[in-house]
């Protein structure tokens, strides 16, 4: 199973919003991330900008 590290608006450590993400649901108002531990993280006003399965990274961008 692939577990992703999720970044918002950049690729630095301070931009990590969640780790070990196994499921992502995109809604009009937010992106919902589900971790392997069952934790849910909502990122408001965001969209998926990039998915890298080799590096197990998911990159989100926020909109104003």
Structural summary, described in words:
By secondary structure, the chain is mainly β. A 6-stranded mixed β-sheet has the order 4-3-2-1-6-5, with no helix packed on it. The termini are far apart. The mean pLDDT is 96.
Low-confidence stretches: none
How do the SSEs run, as a string of H and E?
EEEEEE
Q: Measured on Cα atoms, how large is the radius of gyration?
A: 11 Å
Specify the number of helices: 0
Structural class: mainly beta
Mean pLDDT across residues: 96
Largest sheet: 6 strands, mixed
**Which percent range describes the beta-strand content?**
over 45%
Distance between the termini: 33 Å
How many beta-strand elements? 6
Shape: globular
Strand order of the largest sheet: 4-3-2-1-6-5
Helix fraction by DSSP (H/I, runs of at least 4):
under 10%
